[in-house]
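Lab notebook, entry 245. We have the chain sequence and a SMILES string for L4RZE5RM, and the next step in the workflow is to get a structural model of the bound complex before anyone spends time on docking refinements. Request logged below.

Task: model protein plus L4RZE5RM, output structure tokens.
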Amino acid sequence: MPLRETVILLDIEGTITSISFVKDTLFPYVAAALKNYVDKYWNDETFQQDLELLRAQAALDSNIEGFVPICTGNNEKESVINNVLWQMSKDRKNTALKQLQGHIWREGYESGLLKGHLYEDVLPVLTKLISMGKQIYTYSSGSTTAQEYLFQYSMYGDVSHMFVNYFDTKMGPKSSETSYKNIANRIFVNCHDILFLTDVLAEAEAAKRAGCSSALLVRPGNAPLDPKQSSKFKIMKTLDELLEV
Ligand SMILES: CSCCC(=O)C(=O)COP(=O)(O)O
Ligand SMILES: [Mg+2]
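Result returned:
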């Protein structure tokens, strides 16, 4: 069946980028750079805004087992670092953590140390989809800043021109149907016109509840999908399957 939807909304990690790039390259970069970053940028407005978000998140997290608080006074910087490392150990996806990570990756990308990973089918298929008049957007837990860097400094050079825009958790959590409605409203289309591609069943289900079409990607290294639960979705190994008629 030819693709009916006019908007292709892409998850990033596990869908067009490998989970291994995020877990084995991006996250360790943050863990290694964090202390220097906090020392260097402590008084910068951007860092102070990130810190405000981290504090607000910490206030919500205080009931979680093993919670690492952010304190004031002499140990403030150290407590911020420990809070961020604790959140990362749990692979948390809140806006506060994701925003800070995105800012920390900037120097890594700009210095050439980091190159955004993309599966080899991604750019050829997106090029074809764009030539068919489709609009390509992303929706990731990674901040829009982090997404921009990944595409601007990708292993294939700057490919950011392929994307109309990027969305992150400021639209809401990816497992909430409201988030997909928010995105549709923001880009002035009906959910019905959006095809959302992801590696996470709960995200595909949320998009479907909102009225979007959705399909699941199984990439090497992704967590296995429950065959029973995922049977209501098209399951693809690569994006090439979008072009099959
Ligand atoms: C977009 S680069 C950073 C990746 C990241 O931090 C992340 O949480 C990706 O999650 P996704 O929603 O793209 O699976
Ligand atoms: Mg994903």
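Notes for the group: Residues 115 and 154 are 5 Å apart (CA to CA). Worth checking against the assay data. The chain has a mean pLDDT of 97.
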